[in-house]
Amino acid sequence: MMGSGAQNSTNKDRKMVNSIIFPNVNALAQSAAEHFCQNATAAIQTKGMFTVALSGGSTPVHLYQLLATDSFRHRVDWAKIHFFWGDERCVPPDHPDSNYLSAWENLLSKAPVPQNNIHRILAEQNPNQAAAAYEETLRSFFSKREGDTQAAGVDLCLLGMGEDGHTASLFPGTPVIFEKTHWVRPVFVEKLSTWRITLTAPFLRQSSKIIFLVTGSNKSQTLQKVLHGPYQPEQFPSQLIADAPCKPLWLLDEEAAALI
Ligand code: 6PG
Predict the structure, then answer these.
(1) Cβ of residue 55 lying under 6 Å from some atom of ligand 1
(2) How far is the CA of 1 from the centre of ligand 1 (A)?
(3) CA atoms within 13 A of residue 61's CA, in its CB half-sphere
(4) What's the pLDDT at 11?
(5) Mean pLDDT of the chain, nearest integer
């Protein structure tokens, strides 16, 4: 059992939700770190490497910091882990808003990760060029065969969920929600008046395992709609990923899970 959460919170007249609910973000991060290590160990044992797409935002920082501590840092073979990102803000890698910087400062600079294993989205470039370059990175890494359209996907994809129901940078009302072929797209987020680069549903849904990390009472109403409301991905893009074939796991704190 990973963490002290209540397993599989289900409700008799609602869809089964693969979730674990924790009293606080620290307990959630502990469980997430255990999942990370166990998935990494299994993947490295079976295929000699582990690929993970990191999430941006504040919630996963607790996980990154925990993985960098002595109790976890020695549990995985970092030289065999490849790091990708689910999305990135269109800022330089040393900008405080950079998801890469957040992972670098809290984890990657503190663990023996080979530089070549860090596949940063070059989001300081023109958004279209950055998205095209990252798609090429993914296609050459995950589909060795020419013209292979079936995304292999990462072993583990970490995702958050915004109060508006977005995940990665799949924001409500943006055209990227309907993307069916590209694995990476640039997206202009009106309400933030910023460009972002995001992995798309076709790629994200191919992940072998997806873990959503969601905390805070401000997420509870949205989470209820994402998990139990009608299918409205344009309004709640997290729904694009919630029913991925791997059956995503939701690691939630009690506040976020209050209505499910
Ligand atoms: C980002 C993330 C984004 C994030 C959610 C939740 O770049 O900000 O990819 O999708 O996961 O906004 O963020 P919090 O964990 O900070 O609530």
Answers:
(1) yes
(2) 27
(3) 11
(4) 46
(5) 93
Question: Does the pLDDT at position 85 exceed 80?
Answer: yes
Ligand 1 midpoint to CA 214 (Å): 9
**Does the model's pTM come out above 0.85?**
yes
CA distance 220 to 51: 30
In the predicted model, is pLDDT for residue 2 greater than 80? no
Rounded to 10°, the helix 59-67/25-47 angle is 60
* Res 195 pLDDT > 70: yes
Does residue 160 line the site of ligand 1, with CB under 6 A? Answer: yes
Q: How far does the centroid of ligand 1 lie from the alpha carbon of residue 162, in Å?
A: 6
Place of tokens 């060795």: 144
Please give the full DSSP string across 123-139, using - where no structure is assigned: TTS-HHHHHHHHHHHHH
Cβ of 168 closer than 6 Å to ligand 1, yes or no, is yes
Sign, CA dihedral 135-136-138-139, equals positive
Using CA atoms, how far residue 218 sits from 103, 157, 162, 212, 231, in Å, is: 24, 23, 9, 16, 21
